[in-house]
Amino acid sequence: MTTPAHSPTHSLTTEGLTKSFGGVRAIDGASVAFHEGEINALIGPNGSGKTTFFNCVTGMIRPDAGTVSYQDRDVTGLPPHRIARSGIGRSFQLCRVFPRLTVLENVLVAVQPHGLLQRLRGSRNPADVGRARELLARVGIDHLEHAEARDISYGQQKLLELAGVLMGDPHTIMLDEPAGGVNPALVDRIADLVRELNAEGRTFIIVEHNMELVMGLSDHVVVFDRGRPIAQGTPAVVQDDPLVLEAYLGV
Ligand SMILES: Nc1ncnc2c1ncn2[C@@H]1O[C@H](COP(=O)(O)OP(=O)(O)OP(=O)(O)O)[C@@H](O)[C@H]1O
Prior knowledge:
By secondary structure, the chain is α/β, with parallel strands linked by helices. The chain has two domains: 9-87 and 171-251, P-loop containing nucleotide triphosphate hydrolases (Rossmann fold); 98-169, no CATH class. It has nine helices and ten strands. Strands 6-7-8-3-9-10 form a six-stranded mixed β-sheet, with helices on both faces. Strands 2-1-4-5 form a four-stranded antiparallel β-sheet, with helices on one face. It is globular. Bound molecules: adenosine-5'-triphosphate.
C-alpha cells in the first residue's frame, strides 16, 4: 500500500466548500477535517449534501468556491483520475459495475487506461489478474469470478465495487452508502472488511444512513445539515448533540 511521506493528523480537509445547483445550495461553505488513519463517517438527513460533497472532493463536479486539501496538498478541482492517483478511492451510492462483464473483468477494468475497455477480454496483464483474484478472495466473492455482474446479488456487487476500488491501492477510501440495499449478513461482511482495511492503515470516509453501522464502526463522525457540518466528534458525542436531533427529527 502507498504510504504517505508523512502522517498528518488530518487526511482530507475542506475550507468553505460551496456548490449550488440552480437555486439549491447543496454545499454551503463547508469546512470539514477528516481524521487520518481513522474510520470517519459523514451523516446527515436526506438532501443535506453528502453525495455532492463526495463528488466535489473526488473531482466528479467542480465546486463553486472553497478548497479541498489532501495530506496538505491542494487538490481542488483536479479531475477524478488525478484525485485517484493522489491516493483517494471511492465507491458510489448506486453501485457502479458493468453488468455484462464478468466479476473478474469488472475488477480488471479498474486498472485499464481510458478507452481500452473494449480490449479488456483480449489483453490481460497476469500480475493484474493475480491481484484481482486476490482482492476477490479478500472480499469473499472469488467463487463468482466467471459470473456476469448482473447475475450476482446487489450486496455482492457492492463487494465487487470495493474490490475494484482496492485495485487502485488507495490510502483513503470514500464509500457512499456501502450498506444501502444490502442484506444484514453482507452488511456485517462489509463492516469487517472496513475494520480490517483500516487496521492495515487505510483511512475511511463513509456516508451511511444505517445508524447502527455508523455508530458501531466509526471513530469520528461529521454531521451535515443543509450543506454544512453542524456537529462532529465521537459517535457518543454526536448522538447526544441536540443540534443533531433537531436536524434529523426537525424538533
Ligand atoms: N445534479 C443535481 N442537480 C440539481 N440538484 C441537485 C443535484 N445533485 C444534488 N442536488 C440537490 O442538492 C441537494 C443535496 O443533495 P445530495 O444528493 O448531495 O444530498 P445527500 O445528503 O447525499 O442526500 P441522500 O442522503 O438522500 O443521498 C439536494 O437538495 C439535491 O436535490
